[in-house]
Automatic annotation (TrEMBL), chain A:
Native organism taxonomy: Bacteria, Bacillati, Actinomycetota, Actinomycetes, Nakamurellales
Name of this chain's protein: ABC transporter permease
Localization per record: Cell membrane
Source organism of the structure: Nakamurella flavida
Pfam short name (any one): BPD_transp_1_N
Protein origin, superkingdom: Bacteria
GO biological process: transmembrane transport
Automatic annotation (TrEMBL), chain B:
UniProt record similarity statement: Belongs to the bacterial solute-binding protein 5 family.
Keyword Transmembrane helix: no
GO biological process assignments: peptide transport
Sorted UniProt keywords: Signal, Transport
Stated name of the protein: Solute-binding protein family 5 domain-containing protein
Endpoints of the signal sequence: 1-22
Taxonomy of the source species: Bacteria, Bacillati, Actinomycetota, Actinomycetes, Nakamurellales
PANTHER family: OLIGOPEPTIDE-BINDING PROTEIN APPA, PERIPLASMIC BINDING COMPONENT OF ABC TRANSPORTER
PROSITE patterns to which the protein is assigned, alphabetical: PROKAR_LIPOPROTEIN
Molecular function via GO: peptide transmembrane transporter activity
Length: 313, 522
């Protein structure tokens, strides 16, 4: 198992490296000019030229890349060219917001999706049909639209939850819960549908397999079969779906954060791209990639735990 | 005492403005306002009330020399005092500098400074501080550097007297000294290079770093010993950064913020939510026909073609349908309250497709031509089909070119664009507008187009003053409209929404009213 984890970990790091490197050169190719972005329209050509030297943009691109990489490895992600704030500070401030939303959405989606999926699978007939329609609807609703509706209904009209803003968990757990409830709901709705749909289908498929029939013929109770045998075999695809939903929630968070005025990694990235702030974009990207890789690793390990055959591959 | 009278006058003006446009206050409320105003003026204790302002943008730097104009003025005004200040009508009056006089040829400006004022780091505010600031502003890369360009030297005559010498007269200087150019930063922090990260001013508030979360919410605490305390009645100012208009509106309607700059589509909702709606004429929107020499789009080189484009637009209809009637149709690009505005010019190009076709034929384009038009993806997108429709009726085919963003680097994409749609600020004094778009080196005149008449106006206006200058501005404006450098559609109303718990006096020709114009509702 340890060998397996180490292998996956190294694979993940390689993936992160490739993505980040690709992005670095891509950003350079698009011709965005952080010096002009930082100084704005009124700066003279000479001021921009001086700023370029200050930011080290006059060096060969390979040198810039190696410099960035060398510092990043030691945990130094540079400073924002637009605001001079250390990139790590921006990430540390905004990451908890986005991660709260993404994890919250995945937990809610995991729990509710599993319940709905299993419920639909074991109740063929009208309930299954209704649930399937609801699931498709939930999947089809764009989460920014859901977010706007939730903000208007439960934030502005009923005032059950704050319409905008974020309270950190450390300063007030209750406040934190209040501020993330609506955004998490907006993000989770599509994921609930996706997971439920996936699980329903695999539970139905697994239930039709020979070994289940054999188990049933041996007189095991339906609940026993479902919980210990069917779900164990039906879970892996749903687990993959769950990890995909986490990534979707991470990207969807950018829009939902905007609707609820939360300063998460998404809004940092949007502001940074508006100012051609490459250091910040790279920092945000690196952390996002590391999170995605980390989540995939955890899923892989769970996979391995559920199904020993995977470990041999 | 003059100070208080002035404040009372501002309050009356504000009350009148509020009662006339919002309709929420009757005549009695307006007439009782002066009493409330003088009460506020006589109380010297710092108020306990908090003012929460919504702001669509963060403050990337605290150095006024690096700031780009717009709504960041609220952040700056909380911590910095300007040398001069603007009234609600954008007249200039004294502030940290109590007196300001020009010499006869408008190349020297003498300032008399207040005594006994210190920066929050204990440094004295004196002539040396002014000198250090103006020199820093000149070297900066922000919008203040444009105004400061004409300053050739600053001399500290004695502790309370400063002489500013100009390389050429600059009609925009006083307004600049009332905002970004004139914001006074502690010379110590300029020398130390920390002006951008830690604001040290003489302003009415100090940044409360402990209660501030960068990029999200900024809190300012009132200074009890501030020299002009009465003009800033709130004990605490909070500025919340909310980029999305809908989110900001949600925050406003649930009391999380008390003031926002808004868009036309929010007005009806705001009224039904019981919010105060105020408007001030602000931006003009329309087409900048910048390839006036016809280098890229030869047709635009013909004045008759540019006039034809102006005749082809049904401004009344566009204003009513696209802008919800919030503004006035316009053929000119200056502020309606400025010296350059000429009411009758708006009759210059009535909607007349037949005339447009005739002009095109006279110019040698009887079958029309194709006009490349750049526009900002997003809020201008719905305007494009409307323009395309009107222009196609006279034979002009629109070739829309979408530009992801006009901000910063995006500006480069407009270099070489023969024409583009823009929403553009209008200013008092109009010299700012001249510098923005009419000189050969203007930011928004990428082809650097000019002619002898324009060059003469640009040379003569700074040297003139009073009525003579006003006439020159108006003649310049008339010439530009006749030459059809632009195809403006309308001068729009800037829209502001506020909580009824506060009272905001509208200010002409500034994107958001200065902090001084905010007060608790009586």
């Amino acid at each position: 198992m340890i060998r397996f984890i180490v292998k996956r970990l190294l694979g993940g790091i390689l993936l992160a490296y490739v993505v980040v490197t690709g992005m670095f050169f891509f950003l350079k190719l698009t011709g965005t000019d952080p010096a002009r972005g930082a100084l704005g329209l009124y700066a003279t050509a000479e001021q921009v030229a001086t700023k370029r030297i200050q930011l080290g943009l006059d060096r060969p691109i390979l040198v810039q890349y190696l410099d960035w990489l060398g510092h990043a490895v030691t945990g130094d992600f540079g400073v924002s060219s637009a605001t001079n704030a250390p990139v790590i500070d921006l990430v540390v401030q905004s990451l908890p917001v986005t991660v709260s939303l993404a994890i919250g959405a995945v937990v809610v989606a995991g729990v509710l999706g599993t319940l709905l999926g299993v419920l639909a699978a074991v109740n063929p007939g009208p309930l299954d049909k209704v649930l399937q329609i609801v699931m498709v609807l939930g999947f089809a609703l764009p989460n920014f639209w859901v977010a706007i509706i939730l903000a208007l209904k439960f934030g502005v009209e009923l005032r059950w939850f704050p319409a905008t803003g974020y309270t950190s968990f450390l300063s007030s757990p209750g406040g934190w819960l209040q501020t993330i409830t609506l955004p998490v709901t907006a993000l989770a709705i599509g994921s609930i549908a996706a997971i439920a749909q996936q699980l329903r289908n695999s539970v139905v498929t697994v239930s039709g397999q020979d070994f289940v029939r054999t188990l049933r013929s041996r007189g095991l109770s339906r609940t026993d079969i479902l919980l210990t045998h069917v779900l164990r075999n039906a879970a892996p695809p749903a687990l993959t779906m769950l990890s995909l939903q986490f990534i979707a929630a991470l990207s969807g968070a950018a829009i939902v954060e905007r609707v609820f005025a939360l300063k998460g990694i998404g809004s940092v990235a949007i502001a940074a791209s508006g100012a051609s702030d490459i250091q910040v974009i790279m920092g945000v990207l690196l952390f996002t990639v590391l999170i995605v890789v980390g989540v995939n690793l955890v899923v892989d390990i769970l996979y391995g735990a559920l199904n020993p055959k995977v470990r041999v591959r | 005492m003059r100070q208080r009278l002035r404040l009372a006058a501002v309050v009356v003006a504000g009350a009148l403005a509020l009662s006339s446009c919002a309709g929420s206050q009757g005549g009695t409320a307006a007439s009782s306002a002066p009493a409330a105003g003088s009460d506020a003026a006589s109380g010297s204790a710092v108020g306990s009330q908090t003012l929460v302002l919504g702001n669509a943008g963060d403050i990337p730097t605290w150095d006024p020399g690096e700031m780009k104009e717009g709504m960041v003025i609220h952040y700056a005004e909380a911590v910095y005092d300007p040398l001069l200040r603007k009234t609600a009508d954008s007249e200039i009056e004294g502030n940290l500098a109590t007196e300001f006089t020009y010499n006869d040829d408008l190349t020297e400006l003498d300032l008399t400074l207040q005594e006994g004022i210190t920066f929050t780091d204990g440094q004295p505010f004196d002539a040396d501080a002014v000198k250090a600031n103006l020199e820093a502003r000149k070297a900066g890369a922000g919008s203040a550097s444009e105004t400061a360009k004409s300053i050739s030297s600053v001399e500290a005559v004695d502790a309370t007297h400063v002489k500013i010498t100009l390389s050429e007269p600059n009609p925009g200087l006083l307004a600049g000294l009332a905002t970004y150019t004139g914001f006074m930063v502690s010379p110590a922090s300029i020398t130390a290079g920390t002006a951008g990260t830690a604001p040290v001013g003489t302003g009415p508030y100090t940044l409360d770093a402990a209660a501030t979360q960068q990029g999200t919410s900024y809190q300012f605490a009132a200074r009890a010993d501030y020299w002009n305390r009465d003009a800033f009645p709130f004990g605490t100012i909070v500025i919340k950064v909310i980029e999305d208009f809908t989110a900001m509106f949600n925050a406003l309607s649930t009391g999380q913020v008390q003031f926002m700059y808004a868009t036309a589509d929010l007005v009806d909702q705001a009224k039904s939510a019981g919010l105060t709606v105020d408007t001030v004429p602000g931006e003009w929107q329309g087409i900048i026909l910048q390839d006036r020499a016809g280098t890229v789009a030869p047709a635009l080189g013909e004045v008759k073609v540019r006039q034809a484009i102006n005749y082809a637009l049904d401004r009344e209809a566009i204003l009513k349908t696209f802008y919800a009637g919030l503004g006035q149709v316009s053929t000119q690009t200056f502020n309606p309250s400025s010296d350059a505005w000429v009411d009758s010019l708006n009759q210059e190009y009535p909607y007349d497709p037949a005339k447009a076709k005739a002009l095109l034929a006279e110019a040698g384009y009887p079958d029309g031509f194709t006009l490349p038009l750049s526009y900002s993806e997003g809020f201008q997108t719905p305007l494009i089909p409307i323009l395309a429709q009107y222009l196609s009726e006279v034979g002009i085919t629109l070739e829309p070119i979408s530009v992801a963003s006009f901000s910063n680097g995006g500006l480069d994409t407009l270099v070489g664009a023969p024409s583009f749609v823009l929403s553009f600020s209008t200013n008092i004094p109009p010299w700012t507008d001249v510098l923005n778009k009419l000189t050969p080196t203007s930011l928004w005149n990428h082809f650097g187009y000019t002619d002898d008449t324009v060059a003469k106006f640009i040379a003569d206006i700074p040297k003139a003053s009073g009525d003579e200058q006003k006439k020159l501005y108006q003649d310049f404006n008339t010439y530009i409209v006749e030459q059809a450098w632009f195809a403006p559609i309308a001068t729009l109303e800037n829209i502001y929404l506020s909580d009824p718990a506060i009272k905001v006096t509208m200010q002409q020709a500034q994107l958001v009213p200065s902090l001084r114009f905010f007060a608790p509702a009586a």
